[in-house]
């Protein structure tokens, strides 16, 4: 006797406050009408395959014991092993990690990488830990999630507040537990441990490449164009530098330390040096301080949100005066804000396409580790740019065919690929 499908939310979620996961679910609902016969499988996209919550206890330098909550979520692995970063941040939640894992599923499928989506995080302010405490926490977290990660199962990478050193600790810990060196268990590693050339700048480079493709679509000349960037780390800083070198004017930058503005254009190289020395853009002498809310109202050709999620919301979307928004961060625009931007004619290149450069070069690193054969940085950048241009062209074509936004088109392309894999694999047992 057939049963009515169960569409209830997983019991570990608060139905009244879904957070970022709720934003992702809205995006899936929007794309469902375009999935045809595959829509019978759409609940697959609304449920993570696996969500692991772990306790991460460590001994602090003063001898006391501290406990941190860690997560690793594998959203979907129909097309290959899970792939996604690990972030250390005091505001990390299960809802956030679930959404980020789901967006990784979509991102990997949109760029046609042979991966599923995963994400990890520890709720901690890493600035409050010493280097040795941070290492102990990273190693304990890796041991706790070691049961579900592996080179052919789930491959972590750097994200917010994690870097190549973090990945080195994770790789070493996993390898010690396995009894053999496993370089392919993480990507974003130091070059000395099998990391890939070009990985640090990959996400920002990808943002710049798709921004140039979008500019061509919108008949905008990058040379002389104005650019404003939120977040000035690996992603925003790299994108800003490449825009600057292409003749664009970066007129404003914002991060957690403040906002700086110069209508004539900031000296990006000096600003990057300032950020390296001080930890943020605040106090940079080459521009004037600007109220953080005014940042969104600046008239510009390109707006690059490259910080955290939910930055463009119903409260500021109507004030955005950019021609093109290129999402360097994950989930920086809420669904409601997305509608406002579309109504106002703002051309949005979504995160699942725009910031896929990082995972693309992570894929290159993973392949190089398996083969023990490494490419030059020039080869890496050429391969990255080709894949990003091809992905943009495919998504742009679908957007024109269905007369939908690039975000909806990216979800159509990605969800179709994921669900096709789910369908032909079938259900076991």
Would you mind describing this structure in some detail?
The structure is a single chain. This protein is globular. Residues 1-6 have low confidence and may be disordered. α2 (94-110) crosses α12 (406-425) and α10 crosses α11. Helix content is 40%, strand content 18%. It contains twelve helices and twelve strands. It is α/β, with parallel strands linked by helices and 429 residues long.
Helix coverage percent of residues? Answer: 40-55%
Task: Please state the oligomeric state of the protein chains shown.
Answer: single chain
Unreliable stretches: 1-6
User: What's the β-strand tally?
Assistant: 12
- Secondary-structure class: alpha/beta
The helix tally amounts to 12
Q: For the report, how would you describe the main beta sheet? A: 7 strands, mixed
Strand content: 15-25%
What's the shape? globular
Strands of the biggest beta sheet: in what spatial order? 9-8-7-6-10-11-12
* Amino- and carboxy-terminal Cα gap: 19 Å
Radius of gyration over all CA atoms, rounded: 21 Å
Q: Average pLDDT across residues?
A: 94
The sequence of SSEs as H and E is HEEEHEHEHHEHEEHEEEHEHHHH
Describe the SSE topology.
Blueprint: H1 20-31, E1 50-59, E2 65-76, E3 82-89, H2 94-110, E4 117-123, H3 131-145, E5 154-158, H4 164-178, H5 202-217, E6 226-230, H6 234-245, E7 249-255, E8 258-261, H7 268-278, E9 288-289, E10 299-305, E11 321-326, H8 335-343, E12 347-349, H9 351-354, H10 357-371, H11 377-402, H12 406-425
Parallel strand pairs: 3-4, 3-5, 6-7, 6-10, 10-11, 11-12
Antiparallel strand pairs: 1-2, 2-4, 7-8, 8-9
């Amino acid at each position: 006797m057939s049963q009515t499908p169960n569409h209830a939310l997983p019991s570990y979620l608060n139905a009244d406050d879904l957070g970022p996961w709720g934003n992702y679910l809205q995006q899936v609902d929007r794309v469902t009408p375009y999935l045809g016969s595959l829509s019978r499988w759409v609940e697959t996209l609304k449920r993570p395959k696996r969500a692991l919550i772990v306790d991460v206890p460590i001994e602090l330098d003063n001898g006391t014991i501290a406990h941190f909550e860690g997560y690793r979520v594998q959203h979907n692995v129909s097309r290959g092993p899970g792939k996604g970063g690990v972030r250390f941040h005091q505001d990390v939640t299960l809802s956030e990690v679930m959404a980020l894992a789901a967006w990784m599923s979509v991102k990997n499928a949109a760029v046609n990488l042979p991966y599923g989506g995963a994400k990890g995080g520890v709720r901690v302010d890493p600035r409050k830990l010493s280097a040795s405490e941070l290492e102990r926490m990273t190693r304990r977290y890796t041991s706790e999630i070691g049961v579900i990660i592996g080179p052919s199962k789930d491959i972590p990478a750097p994200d917010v507040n994690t870097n190549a050193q973090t990945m080195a600790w994770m790789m070493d810990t996993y390898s010690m537990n396995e009894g053999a060196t496993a370089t392919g268990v993480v990507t974003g590693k130091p070059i000395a441990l099998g990391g890939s050339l070009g990985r640090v700048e990959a996400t920002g480079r990808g943002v710049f490449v798709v921004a140039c493709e979008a500019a061509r679509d919108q008949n905008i000349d990058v040379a002389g164009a104005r650019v404003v960037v939120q977040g000035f780390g690996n992603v925003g800083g790299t994108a800003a530098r490449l825009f600057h070198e292409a003749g664009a004017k970066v007129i404003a930058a914002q991060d957690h330390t403040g906002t700086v503005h110069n209508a004539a254009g900031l000296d990006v190289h000096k600003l990057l040096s300032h950020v390296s020395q001080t930890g943020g853009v605040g106090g940079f002498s080459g521009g004037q301080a600007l109220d953080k809310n005014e940042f969104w109202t600046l008239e510009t050709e390109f707006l690059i949100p490259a910080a955290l999620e939910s930055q463009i919301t119903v409260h500021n979307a109507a004030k955005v005066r950019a021609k093109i928004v290129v999402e360097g961060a994950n989930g920086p625009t809420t669904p409601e804000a997305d509608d406002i931007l579309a109504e106002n004619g703002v051309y949005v290149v979504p995160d699942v396409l725009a910031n896929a450069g990082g995972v693309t070069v992570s894929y290159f690193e993973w392949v190089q580790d398996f083969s023990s054969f490494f490419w030059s940085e020039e080869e890496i950048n050429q391969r990255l740019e080709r894949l990003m241009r091809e992905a943009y062209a495919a998504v742009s074509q679908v957007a024109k065919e269905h007369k939908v936004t690039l975000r909806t088109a990216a979800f159509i392309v990605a969800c179709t690929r994921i669900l096709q894999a789910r369908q032909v694999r079938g259900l076991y047992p």
